[in-house]
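Hey,
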Amino acid sequence: MSSKADDFDVRHRDGRDGRAWGNGVNGPEDGYAADGSYAGGDHGAFGGTVDYDLGYDANGWDTQGFRSPAAGYLDNHETAYLGDGAAQGNGRGGSHARTTSTQDVGQANWAPGSTGPWLPDQPGPPGRQPGRRGRRAKPGGPGGPGGPRAPRGQRVKIKGSWWRHWTWRKALGVVLGIIGGFIILGALAIVVAYEQTPVPSDAMAATSYAQSLVYSSNGALIGRFGTTDRQELPYNEIPENIINAVLAAEDRHFWTEGGISPTATLRAAFADLTGNDGSLQGGSTITQQFVRNYYAGIGTQQTLSRKIKEIFVAMKVAKEKSKQWILTNYLNTIYLGRGAYGIQAAAETYFGKPVAKLSVPQDAVIAALIQQPSTYPLPEYRPELVARWNYVINGMVQMGNLPAQTAATLKFPSLGPPHVPQSVGTAVWDPYVLNMVRTELETVYHFTDAQIDDGGYIIRTSISDSKMAALYQAVSQNEQQIDADSTLYPFEDYMHVGAVLEDPGTGQIQALYPGPGYTGSRYNGTGPVISARECTKIDCQWNMASQNREQVGSSFKPYILALAVKQGMNVQTSTLDGFNDQFIPPDSQPKAYPSTALPAASDGWSKLVTNDSSGENGPFTPQMAMAESINTAFSDLWHVVAGVGSTTVANSVGQMAQAFGVDTNAAGITGPDDMQDDYGVTLGQASLTVEEQASMLATIDDNCVYHDPHLIVSISQNGLQTPTNVTSA
C-alpha cells in the first residue's frame, strides 16, 4: 500500500545534519534561490532523506493531499530539483508542496563547497544511510522541506494526526483508560449500594420463631415442632474455652476483621465461578452468620444479591456494635441441632450439663456442630463430625489457645442419649407419630428444618384417637396372652409387634402400633414406666410399623398371585400343582412341570419344597392355594410368571412389588441382594415393613388402585391458608 507521498516521491529532509535549507543564509552559489528558499532545491534526488510523517510540517503544507509534480518529473526524478515555480534551466523544478522561503530555519550545506545534488549511487550525506529511502535521518541529517519548523526536539501537532498514527503504547493507554473508567464506576456503584442498604430494625430473636403444631383428626395435640430450646447467657458468663473453640471453627480473625473477610469472600467467589453444582459457596464470618440468623429481611437464599446485602449489613453492624455484643448474640442464637438454639441449650442437650462445666473436647464438639447441625448429630455422620472436631482442636492450637501437647492427648467425647427436641402430647404413641409426620414433611413436601421448626404451620393428620386407643388395647391383651402361654422368656425379650390400619380408598393411616412407648412413658400406656435401660433392650424408640423390616413368610404370596392375574390367569379356574415334596424348575423354564424327583439336568432347579402338612397335597386353584397357603403350588406359580431374569421387566416380581409401594432395594428383592429370580421370594425370604404389607392389602381391596400411605391431611400456615409450595401426598 502506498500513500500519495510514495506516488509523488515526496521527500522530507531532516534538518538535523547541520546544513542550511532555504533560510535565507545560503545563496545561488549553494544551489539556492537568492532569498534562500527552495527555489532549486532537489526534493527528490536525496533519496536517503525520505520522511512520511506528514502529520508534522510548516503552516500551509497540504496534509489532506499533494500537489501534482512538475511536468517531466517522472522522467528525471533522480536528479531533478523540486521547487515552487516552473522547471529551471538545469532541470530543477516541479514542486510537490508549497514552501515559505522567508521563515525557514537556516541549515548548512551537505558539505563545504557542495552545490550539486547528491545522487543515489554516490556516498550519502552526513547522518544518512545510502540506499535506504523512506527512512528518517539520524541526528545530524539535513533539515526538512521549506517552511517554518519547530525548535529542535519539538513537533508541531496538526489536528487529527494523533489518531492517524497508532502505536502499542497508545492502544495500551486507551485500554487501561477504559478499564479504569469501569473500575471507578463500579466503585461508585458499590459506595451507593452500601449507603442505601439499611441495617434491619427487626431482629429474629427467640420470640419471633413460630412453632409448628401437629393435631390428630379429633383435634388432640400430638406435638410441637420447634420448641426454640434456647437459654440466654450474658457475655461475662460465657466460658473462654467455648469462645476459643467457636472462633477456631468459624472465624479465626473475628477480633481483627471489620465484619467481613475479603480473603474468604474471594475464595468462595472463586469456588462459585469454577464449581459446577449450581450452588453458592460459604466464606461467611461470624458477623455475617449472625446478621443472617439474627436480623429479619436478610434471608438465606443462595443468591448474589442476598450475599451482597449480607456483606453490607455485616460491615455496618461491625462499625455500630462491639465485638462482644455480636459474639454474645451469635452464641445465644445459633442453631446446634436436636432443637437446641445457643450454646447453653446445646450443652444440656448433648452432655446433660451447663456450658460452664463442659470440657475442652466437649466445647470443640459444640463448635463443630455449627457447620451442619441437622446431620452431624446423627450416628451415620459421626465420622464427619469427628473430622470437624479435629479441625477445631487444631485451630485452637494454631491460634495459641491450646497447647499442642494437651491437644495430642484429647479424645472425642461420647454424646448423650438421643434427645427429642419437640414437645409431645400425653398419648403414649405421640412421639412415634410426630417423627413420622416430620419424615413425611421432609420427604414428600420437601420442607427444611427451619420451615418445620420455625414456620408456624398447623398440620392435621388422619390419626384417630379412638382407633389408636383400641389398637393399643388389642396389642396389650395379645401380648399378655402370649406371656401367659410362654414357658421360656417374657414376650418383649424375643418378639416385637407392629400394626397399621390404612384407609384403602385414600391411603390415610388412621391408626398404628409402632411401639410400647419412649423412655419415661408407661409400657403400652398402662404398664410400668420404661427405663432407659429397658428402652435400649427392646429398642423402644424404633418404629416397628414403618421402620422395622422382617421376613414376611407366606404373606408375600399375594404379590405372586397379583402378577399372575396381570398376565391373564383366571384365579378361579386355573390349576396349580400343589403336591407335597416338589422340586421347582427355574424361571427360565416356565413351561416345565415340577417333579417329585430331581432331574438329571437340575441346574437352576430349587431345593425340595414341602407344604406345612402332608394333607396339603394335590391340585389347587390359585384362589384355594392362597386361602390355604400351599407352598408348592405358589412355588410352581412363581416359576411360571416370574419370567427369564430381570430383563423381562413386565413379568418381574420385583416390579410388581414396587407397584404396591415396596422398597425392593431395602427389602433385598432387587439391588445388591437381588432375589428376583429366587423362588424363595415366594415363601417370604424378603424383608418388608408392616406399613408396606398394609399398603399391599389396601391396594388389592381398592381393586388394585394404589395410594401412597400417609398421615398428613392438611397443612396451613398461621391458620390461614395452605402454603403454595405444599402439594398433596
